[in-house]
Q: What sequence folds into this?
């Protein structure tokens, strides 16, 4: 059911040095920082030949990643995102298998303008999993 790895999201304490690491040291192609106020994050997109890395930093009050950064002050992997063809069919199948979908269970529009859902990390080997309708 899941397809390509769309991205790995990494929460970082400071986007400047994080961007420099990926651009200058690791030699990747990186975007300028993009504010996504509806998601409470500022993102730098790192383009790799086969997938993306998203560097995330909290934006504004009540950012959904503020607590994660407080618990992981040096940063850390926050979630992985897999592509699916049909997000509602994927959701229904996962729920039928007992996985918990976060929030109200309805897809939201994610950072790429596509519908996304998040699965409870306790049901996914301790990893927050995002599925995106590609
Ligand atoms: Co994501």
A:
């Amino acid at each position: 059911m899941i397809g390509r790895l769309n991205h790995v999201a990494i929460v970082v304490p400071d986007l400047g040095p994080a961007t420099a690491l990926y651009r200058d040291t690791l030699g990747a192609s990186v975007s300028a920082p993009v504010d996504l106020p509806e998601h409470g994050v500022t993102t730098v997109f790192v383009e790799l030949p086969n997938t993306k890395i998203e560097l995330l930093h909290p934006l504004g009050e009540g950012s959904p990643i503020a607590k994660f950064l407080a618990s992981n002050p040096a940063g850390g992997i926050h979630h992985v995102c897999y592509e699916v063809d049909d997000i509602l069919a994927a959701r229904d199948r996962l729920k039928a298998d007992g996985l918990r979908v976060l929030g109200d269970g309805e897809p939201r529009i994610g950072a790429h303008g596509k519908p996304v859902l998040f699965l409870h990390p306790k049901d996914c080997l301790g990893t927050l999993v995002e599925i995106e309708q590609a």
In short: The pocket of cobalt (II) ion is lined by residues 7, 9, 54, 79, 81, 111, 130 (CB under 6 Å). The chain has a mean pLDDT of 96.
